[in-house]
Amino acid sequence: MSRTSGPRRARTAAVVLTAVLGVSGCGALPELPGPAPTDLVPSEVPRAVPTATGNLSPDGFDAAQRMAVRIRNVGCRSLSTGSGFAIDATTLITNRHVVADSADLQLSTYDGRDIGATAASTAALADLAIVRTVDELPAFPELAEADPASGDTVTIVGYPLGGRLTVTSGRVMGVTTDPLNENLGEVLVTDAPVEPGSSGSAVLDADGRVIGVVYAKNAAGMSFIVPVSTLRQMLADEGAFVPSPTCTD
């Protein structure tokens, strides 16, 4: 898929990429094929210094935490957690692997309020999913018009390890071909820390706009992001998302 902006391609060295799944564990993938050039990725990337609100203003942080949702996937044989964020009053975005094989999806907001889920739909192309809710969500952010460029500061807001709401910050290191979905095209690579349970977290720019969705990390600590340009394209395609099968189907 085409991208709105064009940062230089960057490939990671031969590392094992893992989906940032829930607390029940992470799935490992084989190494990327072929020689992986490292000269396009800085060996040392400047790190933003995290604060109580990441790189967001106090108002931006307040809006970010209000739209972040913790997801608990109760499956027939497993239990995992993930993160998501609202895009309108009754719609969440998260990862496909966060809602996979569920018998029950349990949602909660930053203030501890439980939200009922009515249905989940997943995309075949990218690790994205839509969850519809019974009750209205506290707030939802604006989607950025363009993907960030290399060096841009980003903030990730989610629920790692199924715990409290956490904010981490970093910078965009570049782009790489998506190692999980080869037909997707390019995804963003950042140095913002994520943990199991961070899957589906919103990635925000300095103005609090969504510029991507966390879906994986690698052994070197780099996080992988579905860019907002891909999210926008898929939301505009009525056939991109189909009902998600459950473990009871």
Explained architecture:
Mean pLDDT is 80; it is low at 1-16 and 21-51. The chain contains 3 helices and 14 strands. The radius of gyration is 17 Å and the shape is globular. Strand 2 and strand 3 form a beta hairpin. It has helices at residues 58-67, 96-99, 228-236; strands at 17-19, 68-75, 79-88, 91-94, 102-109, 114-123, 129-133, 153-158, 166-177, 186-190, 202-204, 210-218, 223-227, 241-243. The strands form 2 sheets. Strands 8-9-10-13-12-11 form a 6-stranded antiparallel β-barrel. The chain has a 6-stranded antiparallel β-barrel with strand order 2-3-4-7-6-5. The chain folds into 2 domains: 17-28 and 45-54 and 142-233, Trypsin-like serine proteases (Thrombin, subunit H, Beta Barrel), CATH 2.40.10; 69-140 and 235-242, Beta Barrel (Thrombin, subunit H), CATH 2.40.10. The chain starts with 16 loop residues before the first strand and ends in a 6-residue tail after the last strand. The protein has 249 residues and is mostly beta strands. It comes from Cellulomonas fimi. This is Trypsin-like peptidase domain-containing protein. InterPro entries: Peptidase_S1_PA, Peptidase_S1C. One of its GO terms (molecular function) is serine-type endopeptidase activity.
Précis, in short:
GO terms for molecular function: serine-type endopeptidase activity. By secondary structure, the protein is mostly beta strands. Helices cover 9% and strands 37% of the residues.
